[in-house]
């Protein structure tokens, strides 16, 4: 039984334009699943659907999100929030904007523990210190008292990672957690997330553009195109023999890890046309059914 | 340290402002037509009488001379003597100041409470009819100036449904002996809540009239910056932690959204204090503004000067307080 099971999730813009097209994704306990696809494919919207933070113009119009055996959409808004707060955490994309500028760092790590999960302040602070140590932050007691603007981007992302793991969630959604960082810092943060994931055994839904990252960190992956899952496979199998022409093209299009600045082969026109035709056929079927 | 240096610079600027205001007012009220002495003497007074009084009040000298004499007195705390009331200006003005301060602060409290509640409610129900209704209400509140709201309130709650007093500061029938001029404060501290309630019933309508336009401004600006803040990443992150919409707004968004509003409230509060002049008159409220109008009618030059200087002083103090609050609330400024 998967910890997170997204089944036929459909998200539309103002009830019309489809943004996600019957997306199904399963994440088992402890599994690390990559979510790849070009910009605008809908990767972030999948995470937001689960977390309940979709933009106002977008809404879930079909499908189910089962978390730990409970259908989230059947819960009251309050209960839904509490389940997410207790069992899921987000590592956001941009550490520079994801911390509240007018609050010290410490309370931003402990607030979920204290306010939502009912920990004592003391226990929560001890826990935060422990986590800051785990993410290799020197002098954590001082950092707890600092304001976000006093810390570097890499430090802030470490803090956000510590904060995400603090409540021992069963699932962490990481939405391109390194793209906003310096290249040198990216690798450290990536290694840190992998290390933390292994230590805590947390399931991870890892949104990324970078197939190199996928090959290093993830076990399974879903390839998204235009809000549609075109391939759902094991990472090992994907690199050996991608099952969909679009995935294959994506694999060729990605610069090699050994040669990151090497020439980029664009996804061929014909492949794009074919996958666009698949999406159009899907939409026709949906309309026919409706 | 930085803050200290900024404050000193501000204080210097304040002093320059006050001198400027003093000079301008001094000259202007002397070049406009109208003779204070002629106004206080009974008809049939002789030219010699007028001449004698002019000399008594120093009005026969040239304007620069008069200014130097007046300024010399001010430096020693002597603001001259009121021509129409024949009492020291400083005594008169300081006697009325508490009434106006209490009214202004009450109006400010009402405006912040009302405007804040409107902004928070509109944000909580953004995109719904509730937000629309609040926007329309705010627009209406803004399109009518404070003294007209005063008239509307007098008609509604003074005449039609007489719920509040529409004149004065306290009912004389209570026979309460005040030891200070801070009536509202004093009655509260002395635990005379009957008197306190009576004073509130007198102040509420003029305060509300002053507060309505400011409440609308606060509501609109705060709602706008709340809306912008609600889209920021740290607000979204807090949402995923399990907080309710209400706590998201009040705990995460509000502290950051409030800064621009705060600056504006400072500026607008000085306008509100300016508004007390007419509103006090309207409600026969015995404050500085009411006295200012009498002073102008009587061409009571020393009194006008004293009141204007005091208003200028209040304005600069308010701005100073706003600046300091802003710095205290914004950690980035505090460390810069
Ligand atoms: N606030 C919004 N209102 C309307 N449409 C939106 C909104 N946000 C995103 N979309 C649309 O939803 C689609 C999916 O966006 P999403 O952010 O999930 O893409 P993504 O795969 O995460 O891309 P990226 O790699 O650039 O982050 C896009 O086509 C986008 O136009
Ligand atoms: Mg995205």
Walk me through the topology.
The complex is a heterodimer of chains A (290) and B (336).
Chain A: E1 4-13, E2 17-27, E3 32-36, H1 43-51, E4 58-67, E5 70-71, H2 77-87, E6 88-91, H3 105-116, H4 121-134, H5 140-145, H6 153-165, E7 171-175, H7 183-200, E8 203-207, H8 211-217, E9 220-225, E10 228-234, H9 235-240, H10 245-253, H11 269-289
Parallel strand pairs in A: 3-8, 3-9, 6-7, 7-8
Antiparallel strand pairs in A: 1-2, 1-4, 4-5, 9-10
Chain B: H1 2-31, H2 36-40, H3 47-56, H4 63-75, H5 89-124, H6 129-142, H7 146-160, H8 183-189, H9 193-230, H10 233-240, H11 245-282, H12 288-297, H13 301-329, H14 331-335
Helix pairs in contact in B: 1-13, 5-6, 5-9, 5-11, 5-13, 6-9, 7-9, 7-11, 8-9, 9-11, 10-11, 11-12, 11-13, 12-13
**First-to-last CA distance of chain B:** 10 Å
> How much of the sequence of chain A is in beta strands?
15-25%
The name of the CATH topology of chain A is Rossmann fold
Fraction of residues in helix of chain A: 40-55%
- Total beta strand runs of chain A: 10
- Bulk shape of chain B: globular
Count, helices of chain B: 14
Mean pLDDT of chain B: 87
Ligands, deduplicated: adenosine-5'-triphosphate, magnesium ion
SSE sequence of chain A, one letter per element: EEEHEEHEHHHHEHEHEEHHH
Unreliable stretches of chain A (pLDDT < 50, length at least 5) are: none
Largest sheet of chain B: none
Q: CATH class of chain B, anyone?
A: Mainly Alpha
Biggest interchain interface, per-side counts: A-B, 31 and 22 residues
In CATH terms, what is the architecture of chain A? 3-Layer(aba) Sandwich
Written overview of the protein:
The complex is a heterodimer of chains A (290) and B (336). Chain A is an alpha/beta fold and 290 residues long. Chain A has helices at residues 43-51, 77-87, 105-116, 121-134, 140-145, 153-165, 183-200, 211-217, 235-240, 245-253, 269-289, and strands at residues 4-13, 17-27, 32-36, 58-67, 70-71, 88-91, 171-175, 203-207, 220-225, 228-234. In chain A, 43% of the residues lie in helices and 22% in strands. Chain A has a six-stranded mixed sheet with strand order 6-7-8-3-9-10, with helices on both faces. In chain A, strands 2-1-4-5 form a four-stranded antiparallel sheet, covered by helices on one side. Chain B is an all-alpha fold and 336 residues long. Chain B is built from 14 helices and no strands. The mean pLDDT of chain B is 87. The A-B interface holds A 51-53, 56, 78, 81-82, 84-86, 88-90, 92-94, 97-103, 111-112, 115-116, 147, 149-150, 160 and B 127, 232-234, 236-244, 247, 252, 255-256, 329-332, 335. The complex binds adenosine-5'-triphosphate (ATP) and magnesium ion. Residues 13, 19, 37, 39-45, 55, 57-58 of chain A line the site of adenosine-5'-triphosphate.
